[in-house]
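Whiteboard transcription, Tuesday session. T.W. wrote the structure tokens on the left side:
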């Protein structure tokens, strides 16, 4: 059985169209790196007293608020979240407050504040 020439032309064009559409889709790679895995063994807890509350200036409420916390002989800068979020949640800190933030130890052996809001007063 012989097919007409027009059928072959349509089939050829359909194959080219499919290959043009599938080629880039198959060549794409996942360009987002996998996030690092959370390791609970690197989490440490500390207790301290708020020495200073550093809030962003008026009009910059979306800037990050942070605290200077005295833990024994060390003073640690604890970054929190945007001031506007603290206000929305009804959370405030004052000099002299006792807090217990959770921290992650960095690879260099120093600690940094944990990204999740897990600080507790008292």
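and on the right, the sequence the group agreed on:
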């Amino acid at each position: 059985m012989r097919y007409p020439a027009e059928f072959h032309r349509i089939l050829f064009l359909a194959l080219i169209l499919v290959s043009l559409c599938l080629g880039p889709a198959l060549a794409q790679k996942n360009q987002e790196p996998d996030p690092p895995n959370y390791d609970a063994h690197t989490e440490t807890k500390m207790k301290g007293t708020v020495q200073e509350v550093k809030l962003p200036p008026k009009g910059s409420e979306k800037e990050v608020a942070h605290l200077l916390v005295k833990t024994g002989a060390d003073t640690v800068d604890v970054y929190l979240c945007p001031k506007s979020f603290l206000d929305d949640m009804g959370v405030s800190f004052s000099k002299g407050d006792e807090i217990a933030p959770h921290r992650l130890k960095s690879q260099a052996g120093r600690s940094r504040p944990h990204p999740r809001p897990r600080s507790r007063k008292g």
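Someone added at the bottom: Helices lie at 5-27, 83-89.
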